[in-house]
Amino acid sequence: MTRGTVVKLDRSLPLVELEDGQRVRCEHATDLVKHGEERAVIGDEVTVEQPDAHQVCVISEILPRRTRLMRRDPRERTCGQVMAANFDLIFVVQPLTRLNLRRLERELVLAFETGAAVSVLLTKADLVDEDVRAQELAQVQSIVGPEVPVLAEGKGDEGALDRVAAMIQPGQTAVLMGQSGAGKSTLINRLAGWEALATGRVREGDGKGRHTTVSREMVALPNGGRIVDMPGVRGMGLWDAERGIEAAFADVVGLAQECRFRDCDHGAEPGCAVRAAVEAGELAPERLSSYVSLRDELRETQARLEQQSWR
């Protein structure tokens, strides 16, 4: 029995890098799957065995996870799905050519919930005017707060690329999370210094890309760090994300402390400090609307889970 790390997940068997650097394809032990344990995901530390007369190695145990990126399983209303584990940093990636602040807020909730360090990376900065870039950067920074790094990078901007690379220390693992066509694979290839991942064209009509990355793969960087390219994810349902909402909407949560009622929903209740901030122009109404929507989505998921547990 030996330990290893899952470095690639695709449509076949997980690829595990063992302690000696050897990489082997593995299947999950029957007992592991039979007892309802989660299957190994990219970044998982696992124990591996090579049974006699067995064609591939077997993952016998998934070790406790330090961090995890989790969403509601799109196939189930009351089930969580872990997408990556044991990473140190997570970059929320959006292209400046089609910045979507409401999606960014949702992605930030999931990112903050992981417990890893969070940064926002705005790609394709070379395709927008400098004034637009500065305006968008300021808008994103106002949403995430001063403590979260917001970087913009584009083709030919080696300075920005160096800043991203410097954030991933030797021995650390970073995850890129963002929709298809955001430029994640291209960025990883530039960081790695070679064509480690396939890239695809972006449609001219809506600026969206195909799911070029269909596997989850950990790529080694020249400085000894690692980075994971996640497939473009359309479904980003919340699951067990209370901490993430509080962190992603720290401005709203802070204002809520001044509400007259502790259980204020920031609707029609009297003495609502959050709604007062909106009326005074201190908080964007879209910001409050997004917070309420995500909060209610999480409440609905939790209610469904409680109903299921009583059946």
Structure description:
The protein has a five-stranded mixed beta barrel with strand order 1-2-3-5-4. Helix content is 32%, strand content 23%. The model is unreliable at 202-206 (pLDDT under 50). It is an alpha/beta fold. The radius of gyration is 21 Å and the shape is flat. The protein starts with a strand and ends with a helix.
Structural class: alpha/beta
Q: pLDDT under 50 segments (min length 5)? A: 202-206
Judging from the principal axes of the Cα atoms, what is the shape?
Answer: flat
Number of helices: 9
Q: Radius of gyration, rounded?
A: 21 Å
- Give helix and strand order, one letter per element, not per position: EEEHEEEEEHEHEHEHEEHHHH
How many strand units? 13
Strand content: 15-25%
Spatial sequence of strands, sheet with the most strands: 1-2-3-5-4
Helix percentage: 25-40%
Name the assembly state: single chain
Main beta sheet strand tally, sense and closure = 5 strands, mixed, barrel
Quote the average pLDDT.
88
Q: First CA to last CA: what distance?
A: 40 Å
